[in-house]
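Long-time lurker. I teach an intro course on protein structure, and each term I like to show students one example going from raw sequence to a predicted 3D structure in token notation. This year I'd like something fresh instead of my usual example. Would anyone be willing to generate the tokens for the chain below so I can use it in lecture? Attribution to the forum is fine with me.
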Amino acid sequence: MTSETRTPNDVNPEESSPFVDENHFARAFFPDRWYAIALPVFLLIVGVTGIGGFLALVMIRSAGQKQGKKSS
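-- Reply from a regular --
Happy to contribute to a lecture. Here you go:
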């Protein structure tokens, strides 16, 4: 029995990866980890902006039609 027993807290995240080694050929087909955060955040911002713009446009047009009916 060795005196060095490793617990999960002792594992260096750079020395172990949950999937494949850093130098494995398959890693060349995937983007960096930075894109795992940046791309969804960008898509979320664009999506929320688009949905908000659409709702604002519908509300403005709806208010204009109601105003036109009142003045007639």
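Some talking points for your students: The chain has a mean pLDDT of 80. The radius of gyration is 27 Å.
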